[in-house]
Request: fold
Amino acid sequence: MSCNAALTVKGMCQQREKEKTNNDLFRSIEKQNYSSDPMKSRTKIELARAAGVSPETFRRWLKTDRAFLEANNIRPTTKLFPPKVVKYLCEKYCIEI
Reply:
């Protein structure tokens, strides 16, 4: 990941934290109460939409995580990620699901 890309991702994380309001907090509490497991298997496209980027950009982000994905038996053509990988990606890229 280039330095500028790392700063962009870091800036996105900081911006999302600043934008969190009471409504967001209410929605997250509501999700916890009504959903059984927020970290379920997700597709690449679902994660890209949740991150607010195009699927192509999300695939580029995944190239920086190749070692982690390969360690979890995820190939570049894998469409559905298991919960462990979803949790890792959500934490790394500040994706709120």
Remarks:
- DSSP finds six helices and two strands in the chain.
- Strands lie at 42-43, 80-81.
- The radius of gyration is 14 Å.
- The longest helix spans residues 3-19.
